[in-house]
Structures are given as C-alpha cells and as structure tokens.
TrEMBL record:
<protein>
    <recommendedName>
        <fullName>Intermembrane phospholipid transport system permease protein MlaE</fullName>
    </recommendedName>
</protein>
<feature type="transmembrane region" description="Helical">
    <location>
        <begin position="243"/>
        <end position="262"/>
    </location>
</feature>
<keyword id="KW-1133">Transmembrane helix</keyword>
<comment type="function">
    <text>Part of the ABC transporter complex MlaFEDB, which is involved in a phospholipid transport pathway that maintains lipid asymmetry in the outer membrane by retrograde trafficking of phospholipids from the outer membrane to the inner membrane. Probably responsible for the translocation of the substrate across the membrane.</text>
</comment>
<dbReference type="InterPro" id="IPR030802">
    <property type="entry name" value="Permease_MalE"/>
</dbReference>
<dbReference type="InterPro" id="IPR053408">
    <property type="entry name" value="MlaE_Permease"/>
</dbReference>
<feature type="transmembrane region" description="Helical">
    <location>
        <begin position="203"/>
        <end position="222"/>
    </location>
</feature>
<feature type="transmembrane region" description="Helical">
    <location>
        <begin position="152"/>
        <end position="172"/>
    </location>
</feature>
<dbReference type="InterPro" id="IPR003453">
    <property type="entry name" value="ABC_MlaE_roteobac"/>
</dbReference>
<feature type="transmembrane region" description="Helical">
    <location>
        <begin position="12"/>
        <end position="35"/>
    </location>
</feature>
<dbReference type="GO" id="GO:0005886">
    <property type="term" value="C:plasma membrane"/>
</dbReference>
<keyword id="KW-0472">Membrane</keyword>
<keyword id="KW-1003">Cell membrane</keyword>
<feature type="transmembrane region" description="Helical">
    <location>
        <begin position="55"/>
        <end position="76"/>
    </location>
</feature>
<keyword id="KW-0813">Transport</keyword>
<keyword id="KW-0997">Cell inner membrane</keyword>
<comment type="similarity">
    <text>Belongs to the MlaE permease family.</text>
</comment>
Length: 265
C-alpha cells in the first residue's frame, strides 16, 4: 500500500513537471509567432497607440499616486532611521537609490500586472469565449498579428516609462516630507542625491529591470488570455493566474537581476 502511494506521488510529480514544460513550450512558440513569425503588428501604428493608451495612460493614476505615497513613506522611515546616526541629510540619497534600483521597477511591475495585465487577459479571453478570434481566422485575419502583437508591444513600451514616472514622482514625494515637513535642508536633499546616483549604476540598471519585467508580465498576460478555456470560469482562472504568475516572476527575477547587477561576484 505504501509502495503504491509512493509510486502515485512520483507519477503526479512527473506529470506536473511535464505539464510545466509543455506550457513553457507553447507559450514560447506563441510569443515567437506573435512578435516575429507573422509579419509584425496588424493595424499599423494607430492600433499600437490605442493599446498604449489602454495599458499605459489608463495606468498612470495608480502609478503616480502609489509613487508619491511610497516616496513619502521612504522619506519618513529613512529620516527616522538616519537621524539616530546623525545622517538625516542623506535621506534624499536613500530615497533615490531605493526607488531607482528596486521599488520603482518592482512596484510598477506589480501594479501593472494587477491593473493592465489582468485587463489584457480578460479582454483576450472574452474575445476567445465569444468566438471573435475564431471569426477573424475564418475571414483570413491573423489574431496573433491584429490582437496579440499590438498588446504585447504596448506592454513592452508602457511599463518602463511608467517605472520612470513612478521613481520621479516618488523622489518628489520624498522631498515634500523630508524638506517641507521634517526640516531637511533642501540643498542637502538634492545634492546628496546628485552625488550618489549614477546613470549607469543606478538609473540604467533600473531601466533594464523594468524592461525585463515588462517583457515577462505582458507575455504572461496575453498568453493566459489566449490559452484560457472559453468560459466565464476559464477567464476568471486565467486572470487570477496572470496576477499570481506575473507577481512571482517579477519578484524572482528581481532577485536574480539584483544579484547580477549589484552583487560582488
């Protein structure tokens, strides 16, 4: 009995591994065809701009508001910690480095997955459940080219720009708390930041992170929508998977990228 149970567990483990490899393979083929194999973006520049507005501009409010408040919290917490060492004038440096290196790209990607990623999955899944994708194929229109590709490129472009905006408004939010409320000298806040932040070491690495996150989050979102079961329950499960998988992917990749960029190897 125990031997049978062990064999069953091994079988289930192997089945799960095979399923994961199968999904990775299908999603990679899907991405290749959507970006490279079917002749680019259908509908031209106008359709791309429409999707940029949908996933990028419509996400601005949550990005800006979140960035301001996170910058304010960083300044408040940083001031409380640094003041115990007599280094409260370095709060601007701490806020800028934390946002540019870590919180800007990571929090933006998580918010993007929750707002735009889930919307992309639900939209494409709804098109599949109402047989709009099948109808396009019947009239000779490639849904990967006209539906998937514009959304992929819009996500790739939008998220890095949103991450930059997040970091900028976060730094300004930190200055309001540090300078206007806590009494940190204005010149020290900005001068320490200017002296410590480098383009290649901090800004560029943050941009690279946001580009990687944009690629992964958007890929997961559109694939889950395209691959979901064409039912309301299937769309609901796919939307949940998008947020969960994208969030885990962002956090895992953040550790790997941080180790490669800032680790002493």
């Amino acid at each position: 009995m125990r031997k049978t149970s062990l064999i069953e567990k091994v079988r289930l483990f192997g089945r799960s591994g095979i399923d994961i490899v199968e999904v990775l393979g299908r999603s990679t083929i899907f991405l290749f065809h959507a970006l490279l194999g079917r002749g680019g973006i259908g509908g031209g520049f106008g359709l791309l701009v429409k999707q940029l507005h949908s996933v990028g501009v419509m996400s601005l409010v949550i990005i800006v508001v979140s960035g301001v408040f996170i910058g304010m919290v960083l300044a408040l917490q940083g001031f409380n910690i640094l003041s115990s060492y007599g280094s409260e004038q370095a709060v601007g440096q701490m806020v800028a480095l934390t946002l540019l290196r870590e919180l800007g790209p990571v929090v933006t990607a998580l918010l993007f997955a929750g707002r735009a990623g889930s919307a992309l999955t639900a939209e494409i899944g709804n098109m599949k459940s109402t047989e709009q994708l099948s109808s396009l194929e019947m009239i000779g229109v490639d849904p990967l080219k006209y539906i998937v590709a514009p959304r992929l490129w819009a996500g790739f472009i939008s998220l890095p720009l949103l991450a930059m905006i997040f970091s900028v408004v976060g730094i300004w939010g930190g200055s309001w708390v540090a300078v206007d409320w806590l009494g940190v000298y204005d010149g020290s806040y900005w001068a320490n930041m200017q002296n410590s932040v480098t383009f290649t070491g901090d800004v560029l690495n943050g941009v690279i992170k946001s580009i990687v996150f944009a690629f992964v989050v958007t890929w997961i979102a559109v694939f889950q929508g395209y691959d979901c079961e064409p039912t309301s329950e299937g769309i609901s499960r796919a939307t949940t998977k998008t947020v969960v998988y994208a969030s885990l992917a962002v956090l895992g990749l953040d550790f790997i990228l941080t180790a490669l960029m800032f680790g002493d190897f």
